[in-house]
Amino acid sequence: MAEEEAKKVEVEVTSEPTPPPPESEPTKDVTEEKSVIPQPAPEELKPDDSKALAVVEKPPELAEEKPTGGSHDRDAALARMETEKRLSLIKAWEENEKTKAENKATKKESAILSWENSKKAAIEAELRKMEEQLEKKKAEYAEKMKNKIAMIHKQAEEKRALTEAQKGEELLKAEEEAAKYRAKGHTPKKLMGCFGG
Questions:
Q1: Would you tell me the crossing angle of helices 71-184 and 2-15 to the nearest 10 degrees?
Q2: What's the pLDDT score for residue 72?
Q3: Where are the beta strands (DSSP E) in the chain?
Q4: What percentage of the chain has pLDDT greater than the value 90?
Q5: Interatomic CA distance for residues 12 and 6, integer angstroms
Q6: How far apart are CA 164 and CA 153, in angstroms?
Q7: Which residues contact residue 15 at a Cβ distance below 8 angstroms, ignoring those fewer than 6 apart?
Q8: CA distances (Å), origin 71, targets 6, 31, 85, 103
Q9: Mean pLDDT rounded to a whole number for the chain
Q10: Tens of pLDDT along 141-176?
Q11: What's 185's DSSP letter?
Q12: Bias regions of kind Basic and acidic residues — which residues (predicted)?
């Protein structure tokens, strides 16, 4: 509110016709007069933080226009100020909406990332569980196979022992029969059949 009053006062002051400059000095533009500001004395340069002033730059189109006086110019200046105010409010609203949209998107991205991480963790836990089960089954199967191998080896040893025993019996039987044939002086009949005699 205070800004509007200050702008109105400024517009009213600038809308008054400027008195003609003295003939001894060359004519100066209004913008040049505003740009030449006398330097304050060093005593006046004490910083006062409670009442800091900001330099407000006007757009170039406003600085080039020279007020010619009258209520029409004041109305036009007020209309321009209203337009500027409306445009600055629209720009502020736009920036606010953009910030809201960015914050909303960031929040959604964060939620998506959290969801993705939790799903990945669940899948990885399930995979580890399956791997553990497979390792357990593999160990059980390997144990079964080792038991089968041991049983086959045991059966093979039993068969070898049986074969050795049969071989020993047959050798003993062959020696006994050979001793009988020697004692009687006969040749075995089976041998004759083998040689084709």
A1: 130
A2: 83
A3: none
A4: 50
A5: 10
A6: 16
A7: 67, 69, 70, 73, 74, 77
A8: 18, 22, 21, 47
A9: 76
A10: 999 999 999 999 999 999 999 999 999 999 999 889
A11: T
A12: 1-11, 25-35, 58-75
